[in-house]
Design a protein that fits this description.
By secondary structure, the protein is α+β, with helices and mostly antiparallel strands. The protein has a single domain, classed as Gcn5-related N-acetyltransferase (GNAT) (Aminopeptidase). Helices cover 24% and strands 33% of the residues. It is built from 4 helices and 9 strands, in the order βααβββαβαββββ. A hairpin with a 2-residue loop joins strand 2 and strand 3. The termini are far apart. Bound molecules: coenzyme A (COA). The site of coenzyme A has 16 residues, from helix 1, strand 4 and helix 3.
Length: 169
Amino acid sequence: MEIRTEKPEDVESVRHLNIAAFGRENEANLVDRLRGIASTLSLVAVQADRIVGHIFFSPVVVAGKCSKNLSILGLAPVAVLPNYQRQGIGTLLIREGLEECRRLGFQAVVVLGNPDFYLRFGFIPASRNSLKCEYDVPDEAFMVLELESGALQDCSGTVKYRSEFNLCE
Ligand SMILES: CC(C)(COP(=O)(O)OP(=O)(O)OC[C@H]1O[C@@H](n2cnc3c(N)ncnc32)[C@H](O)[C@@H]1OP(=O)(O)O)[C@@H](O)C(=O)NCCC(=O)NCCS
């Protein structure tokens, strides 16, 4: 299993993978809209020359009180081909993806999803860092992970995803 940065020739496979995993086009369309924007990160999991998993990160901003230089990413989406799920590929993509974000100097990552899945990676409810999601979601579903210890200490406000997230088709 290799986790590597997406290449231009992977784009079509990544699109198909997201459609297969989510059973709809929304997430694939979102990735296609965000790809190429500064500070995005797209990684794939490759097994026997086949792309079997994908993870994407894009920049978010905090509307509120926060250091201007703070660089935070939103993790979304992450997907594994249906026949390859529950074999640890999603876990590997998230762990290596977060490590790559840290290596690139990003200070925190937010995610909106199932806490049962994400808490194991060190995410905590974002409300504990006085951050809330711009969308109306249950408190525990919006989580944050500091990649740089203390980075969010003096930060509070509403986390805003890229406007591409608001186009939901
Ligand atoms: C979520 C997803 C990326 C996880 O990838 P994966 O390779 O199957 O995950 P792993 O094998 O590393 O499993 C990690 C844990 O997640 C759990 N898990 C995996 N898929 C799950 C699902 N659909 N619902 C609930 N739990 C799930 C596993 O049980 C496992 O927990 P355990 O170790 O306690 O048993 C994958 O199931 C997927 O693509 N789902 C469809 C798309 C999606 O919902 N993406 C997430 C939202 S952006």
